[in-house]
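Researcher: I'm comparing several assemblies side by side, and this is the next one on my list. It has 274 residues spread over four chains. Same procedure as the others: predict the full complex and return the structure.
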Amino acid sequence: MRLSKTSEYALRILSFMINSDMQVFSAKYLIDTLNVPDKYLRRLMTDLSKNGFIKSLKGRDGGYIFAKNANTIHISQVIDAVEGMDRYEGCIMGFGDCSDSNPCSLHENYAPIKEQLIHFLSTTTISELKSTNVLKF
Amino acid sequence: MRLSKTSEYALRILSFMINSDMQVFSAKYLIDTLNVPDKYLRRLMTDLSKNGFIKSLKGRDGGYIFAKNANTIHISQVIDAVEGMDRYEGCIMGFGDCSDSNPCSLHENYAPIKEQLIHFLSTTTISELKSTNVLKF
DNA sequence: TCAAATTACTATATGGTGGTAGTATATTAA
DNA sequence: TTAATATACTACCACCATATAGTAATTTGA
């Protein structure tokens, strides 16, 4: 589906956090567990903090913790924060002015599929990633 | 939906060609009409030729022409030729081993949407881009 | 035959995403 | 108070997609 790698990382991290019993997650722990590059993960966590999904606890025994209930964090919001949702909402052929009333030649057939995708991303929350029978996060 | 820009260009070009009465299209004509960068379009046309969608006629009055019936060219084939379809077929969170039997936490909900998307791209042909009431290509 | 029109090829530049390195800052247990 | 453990910030690097430039090769009308 081609989310950016950053979006993939963000979703994996939040999915891992919601599926763990722990409350506070140090960057080091997430890096070792999830195989996300060290500094890249740290920067991403700061980004996710600034966007209010998680908050950071500095100093000894610090780490990251959800800043709000995971059932209020929608996948589309996470994607929007780290790479922007625009690209998924636009015309499949890249026309800036493509719409129902001024469609490109693929619009009619593609619109319903895009509609479903956006609906999926904007209604599914991080808490729905909690699963008992899923091995990967 | 975030096809690569190259895929967007390719689809726009083929869509334009199928909607025109002309048979042979010079690079210069396509460049002027479709606002695709000069050398980039030329290289893309060569690429599309090598993949058998169009063929080139060299020399004076040369240009490009469909190499086979447009109803045998599927959108997925064009995408596959210029950027690869892999990215659209993989896991939404980027897990290499995500599958029905070994799903990620989004798999169950995302799989049907991805299925529709792939079905759309692999069953729609260039000839279906022909339209009488569409202004853009 | 030759000049014009055209595509093909090769090399290079640019911009953005992903990734790395080093330093600064904050917190807390001892 | 201080050393250890964290996160935050800033700068830089690498790769790939996109874009540009210049030259070579091919065809054909006159």
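Model: For your comparison table: The mean pLDDT of chain B is 95.
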